[in-house]
Automatic annotation (TrEMBL):
Belongs to the peptidase M20 family. Residues 1-24 form the signal peptide. This is Ureidoglycolate hydrolase. Its cofactor is Ni(2+); Mn(2+); Co(2+). The keyword Transport does not apply. It catalyses: (S)-ureidoglycolate + H2O + 2 H(+) = glyoxylate + 2 NH4(+) + CO2.
Length: 472
């Protein structure tokens, strides 16, 4: 597999490499050294300073862990939990921390109108489409300190690794910190990457979007120093092809790698989420005075629909189909009052879009049937988002596989059942993801943890993959 990938990139460089090899020999450079460098990289060497030994790919694990720990202190809840909400004071401080680290790595830093942060290392052919990497640092309430963070701090360290090794990229390398991958404040997941991918619907919606405290998105963004005097956020849109590749490093958020003792997961596909909001309206009444045959209980309608979600997902007969009722609210919310209103928010996802959409249709039919049977009103059934799945690009999968093999790290192909910014970056460029193990698969909770060794392995695979892709 590694050989096949190397051959893919060999042909366009052959002539230049041969010329460079002749020149180097004439200048007295040892051809054996050049061959060693070529064997290491899997690519012909047309520029000096490519590392000639895998041992040069050295990760500063102590410094990286210190950065992870320090970033976790920018939190609105006490350790070991992390809460970092979009455009909050702690979020703004964390952003400054990231920009400083990018600066220390010698990257040129810029930000867009919603706060996506970009740090670029110019290649020796900067006119070519860059290779990008990155993730997010926002954190849902009472979560952990590794989700997303490993993909941002690890990406900066991967650049440092390559710089220390003496590598010179052909294509520029760019680290991206995405704004608001989590939907915590405004209910919009992958806000920054979704907007970068050119979502006109989102750009329009953000002009009217408010949080739970009725603060508008634009006001919140301006309070953090973004969207300055502008309501047109289309400046965030990126043209397709602006990057030749995007690779995201992330903790697995599941138990498979740890249970199987495998160091690296190579993601082949990302399951696509769809979110649904459902409202039932009944009559309510006193919990003691209204007899059971006479009730129009909106709460029981919600409970029955929640069970229907589970049934329809299981009926798909695919382990890749999942559904969750993550929010179920009753009004008035008193123990001695029959619920007159209920509100559900449902998450369904799958790597097969048609199969997932079939589940959504069945949930809708169940909601209608339950409303009729219980004599309540289905006042809303709204599909909030219905994103298509994303497939990793073959060339990036091959680069990640080759890098893992060259580093002697056990790896496996797997899908991501959680969605990531990579889902939307796939609309802009070829995409791939690298997973590393995390303790018991824990995520979105304070117990979330990945070892220094696992993080270092992920950073090395990322660094070598970026190097390969930058020379393509």
């Amino acid at each position: 597999m590694a050989l096949r990938f190397s051959l893919l990139v060999l042909s366009p460089l052959l002539l230049l490499c041969c010329c460079h090899g002749i020149k180097a020999h004439k200048d007295g450079e040892d051809p054996t050294t050049i061959k060693t460098m070529q064997d290491f990289s899997g690519y012909p060497i047309q520029e000096p300073h490519f590392p000639n030994s895998l041992s040069l790919l050295s990760v500063d694990t102590l410094s990286l862990q210190k950065q992870i720990d320090e970033l976790s202190t920018f939190s609105d809840t006490p350790a070991p939990s992390v809460t970092r909400i979009l455009y909050s004071e702690k979020d703004v401080l964390a952003r400054s921390f990231i920009k400083n680290l990018m600066g220390f790595a010698g990257l040129s830093v810029r930000e867009d109108a919603v706060g996506n942060i970009f740090g670029r290392w110019d290649g020796y052919e900067p006119e070519l489409a860059a290779v990008s990497t990155g993730s997010h640092i926002d954190a849902i309430p009472y979560s952990g300190k590794y989700d997303g963070v490993v993909g941002v701090l690890g990406a900066i360290e991967a650049i440092n690794v390559l710089q220390r090794s003496g590598f010179k990229p052909k294509r520029s390398l760019e680290v991206i910190m995405f704004t608001s991958e989590e939907p915590t404040r405004f209910g919009i997941s992958c806000l920054g990457s979704r907007l970068m991918a050119g979502s006109e619907a989102l750009e329009k919606a953000l002009k009217k979007t408010v949080d739970s405290k009725n603060i508008s998105f634009l006001d919140a963004a301006r309070s953090a120093g973004y969207a300055k005097g502008e309501e047109d956020l289309s400046s965030v849109f990126l043209k397709k092809g602006i990057y030749s590749a995007f690779v995201e490093l992330h903790i697995e958020q599941g138990p498979i790698l740890e249970e199987e003792g495998i160091s690296i997961g190579i993601v082949t596909a990302i399951a696509a989420p769809a979110s649904i909001k459902v409202d039932f309206e009944g009559n309510g009444g006193h919990a003691g005075a209204v007899l059971m045959p006479n009730r129009n209980d909106a709460g029981l309608a919600a409970a029955e629909l929640a069970l229907a979600v589970e049934k329809h997902v299981l009926d798909s007969e695919s382990i890749d189909t999942v559904g969750t009722v993550g929010i179920l609210e009753l009004h008035p919310g008193a123990i001695n009052s029959i619920p007159s209103k209920s509100h559900l928010e449902i998450d369904t996802r799958d790597i097969d879009e048609d199969r997932r959409n079939t589940v959504i249709e069945k949930i809708h039919h169940s909601a209608l049937a339950i409303a009729q049977k219980r004599d309540v009103k289905l006042s809303e059934f709204k599909i909030v988002n219905q994103d298509p799945p994303a497939l990793s690009h073959d060339s990036i999968i091959k680069a990640m596989e080759a890098s893992s093999q060259e580093l002697n790290l056990a790896h496996k192909l797997m899908i991501s059942r959680a969605y990531h910014d990579s889902l939307f970056m796939a609309r802009i460029s070829p995409m791939g993801m690298i997973f590393i193990p995390c303790y018991k698969g824990y995520s979105h909770k304070p117990e979330e943890f990945s070892s220094n060794e696992d993080i270092a392995n992920g950073v090395k695979v990322l660094a070598l993959t970026l190097a390969k892709l930058s020379l393509y």
